C-alpha cells in the first residue's frame, strides 16, 4: 500500500484579493503545505488542467466568475469532482451557505477568517480525503490480492502458505482501517442481469464494515444475508425515487443519492449514498462498491437555515421572502382558475413607535409577538400571516367567496388590535390601520399587489387610523403624484428653490405692528408656485421636513435680525415660525435653534414657535420637556389652530405656552354664527385665565375686528391687513411705517378699505 499521508498536501487558493492570497499562502506554507494561488475562477480552472490539488479554498464574490459557478464546473468534470472545495466568503446569510453546500462545497468559512480555524478545517477535509483515497487504494489492493490467490495455486505449498499468511495480514489491516471509518463501506458482487438490483440469490456481499450496524440499527449478519435489505429501510416517501435512481447504475456506472431511512426504533435519519460499479478488463461488471454516510445533523442544520431564511426571528411568522412566494403561488393558481378570489391585507400598528420609545424595545418586542398571536386567532389555518419588519404585518387570504368576507375579517382584526392588552404591568392599546387589495386589481406580480395594499393602508391611516381602506386606482394616482412631489422636493432642497413670505400680525387694541408669521413658498420650475398644503404633508412623511424646517428657521431669524438693524425705530418686532411634528421629535432641534440664534444674532425673546395641539399630545411628556427648555431660552411658544384638536385643558395648564391662536374656521363665522362666536369667546377667556395672549387667524372684515376687540383679543392677522408678503414688499412697508406710523404694504398689496375702521394712530 502506498503511504498517501507522506505526500505533501497541495492546496489551491482562489481569491481576487491579493492580501487574502498572501496571508493564506504564507500561513499554509509555514505549516508545510504545497500552496498555489489563482486570482480568479478562470485561472483556477486552467490550473486544474495541469495539476490536481488535494483541496481548494474558494472565494465566492469574484468579478469574472463567482465561486458557485467555479465549484459547479469543478463538480461537472470527472477529473476534478473528487477534489474537496471549501468556500471562504464574507457572505454570512443562511441562503448563501445553503447554496454553497448545494453546488458541491464540503465546508464554509466566514470572513474575516481566523488562520487557526482555516488550518483545522483544512486538516479535517484532508483527513477525510485521505480516508477515501485509502479505501480506493485498498479496493485496488483487494483486486490485486484476488489475482495473487490465483497465482498461489501454481506455487509450491511452502510459498503458498507464506503468501497466504501475508495476504491474511494485509486483509486484517484493511479490515481494521475500514471498521474504524464512520462511513459504511459495502461491496457486493454485480448481478448477472442488466438490472443492477437483482434477486437476493444473484448478489452476494463481499464486504460490509461495522458502521452499517450502527447507522442502520440492524445486525451485520442480517444485512449480509440480504444484500438489498437496505432498500426496505428507506423512508416510504423516498423509496420509489431511490429505486429508480439505483436502477440507473448499470447505465451510468455510478450514482449519488440522498434519502431518509426509518430504523426499527422509528428514528428517521438522513443518508448520503454513493454506488459505483467496478469492471473487469473485458468490460464485465464484477463488483458494486457503496459508501454511505449519516448526514442527519447536516440536514437538520440546512433545514434550520432554510427555515430561518424564510421566517421572522422574533415572532416565528413567515417573513417577506416567504410571503411573496405565497402570493406568487396564489397568482399562478388564479391564472389557471380566474374565477377564484384572493386578497392581500397590509396591517400597520398605529401607536407602536410611542410604546417602543417610551417603554423600551423589550416591551416592544413582546408586544409584536402578542399582536402576531392575536391576529393568528382571527385567521383560518390556510391563511398566511407574515411580519414584514417593524410593526408591519401582512395577510394572504385565499379561497375567498365574497369580498364581504375580507371586509368582515378586517373589522374583526381592527377590533382585536383595539382591545387593551397588559404587558409588564402596563395596559396598552395600540390599534392599527389596514389596507386591502384584491386580485381583481389586475396585477400579476406579488410586488405590485403588496405595493397597492401598502398604499391602501396609508390611505386608512391618513383618514384617521383605526380603520381599513380598499385599494382603488385613485389611490395609486395620488401615490404617483406624491412620489413626484417627493422627487421634486428633494431637488428643491438641494437647489434652494424655497422662499419665505411674511404675514403681518397687529395688536388690535393698540393698532401697533406686532410682528410677522414666516410662511414658506415653493417656486417649482414647471408648476410655478406650489401651495404648502400640497407639499408639506409629503415633506412630513419623507422626513424632508427636517432640512426644510431648519432652512425656514435659519432664514426667518436672519431676516428678522436684518429688519431690526435696518428699522431700529420699530421696537420689539416678533417673528412666528411653525414647527412640524417631526421637528419636535428631532433630538437635534435645540442644538439647531441655539446655532441659528447665535449665527443670526437674534435674541430668543423675538422668536415665537407655533405648535399644534395634536403634535403636543402625540409627543407626550417629551414635548413638555422640550417646551420647558425653549422657555429657558426666552423663546415664545404658541399653540396653533387651537380648538380643532384635543383641547385638553388639564394638559394645557401644565405647558409653558404664551399664546393661543384661534383657528380661522371659528373667526370666519363668528359674526354670523353664535356657536362660533361662543367658541372664540371661550378660547379668549381660557387663554387670559391661564395668563396667555390670543392671536386670531384669518381676519378679513371690520366686523370681525370689532368683535375681537370687544372680547379683548390682543392680536390678529389676516387678509384684512395683508396677504403674506415677499421680503421687498415688507421692507417698503416697514420704511413707510417707520416714517409715518401707518401700515401700507405698497403697490403690490393694497389695504382693504375697511382698514379705515381703525384710527390712524392705531395703524
Automatic annotation (TrEMBL):
Keywords: Coiled coil, Phosphoprotein. The modification 4-aspartylphosphate is found at residue 59. Residues 128-180 form a coiled coil. Residues 255-307 form the PAC domain. Residues 340-473 form the GGDEF domain. It comes from the Bacteria. Residues 482-738 form the EAL domain. InterPro entries: Biofilm_reg_signaling (IPR052155), CheY-like_superfamily (IPR011006), EAL_dom (IPR001633), EAL_sf (IPR035919), GGDEF_dom (IPR000160), Nucleotide_cyclase (IPR029787), PAS (IPR000014), PAS-assoc_C (IPR000700). Residues 10-126 form the Response regulatory domain. GO terms for biological process: phosphorelay signal transduction system. SMART domains: EAL, GGDEF, PAS, REC. Residues 170-253 form the PAS domain. Signal peptide: none annotated. PANTHER family: BIOFILM ARCHITECTURE MAINTENANCE PROTEIN MBAA, DIGUANYLATE CYCLASE DGCP. This is EAL domain-containing protein.
